[in-house]
Amino acid sequence: MSWKKSFFAVGLGVLGGYLLQKQLDAGGISPERALKSVKGRVGEKHTIDGSWVHMQPEIVEKYGLDYSAYRGGITVSTNDQVKHYNFLVDAGTGTVLEFTPDED
Prior knowledge:
Number of domains: 1
Number of helices: 2
Largest sheet: 5 strands, antiparallel
Strand content: 35-45%
């Protein structure tokens, strides 16, 4: 292996390590991953017609504690009915904090 290839490989390793560390330091999950998690759980029992998630987390109080959470919604078909649900997902852990029917 030439020194140029070695230098390039070391550079890629350093860049990859830097990017990985940056992601780990940011902590938490992305809004896309939060939505995918909810859709995965709901999709096990229902047909999903649509979904959305806010891209910025917000501070919400649940059970006397403050959480940074993503707010979103999902529309499902159940027994020829369409139902809308709202959800909150902890932006740090991905835990679903709330999943409630929409009160339209």
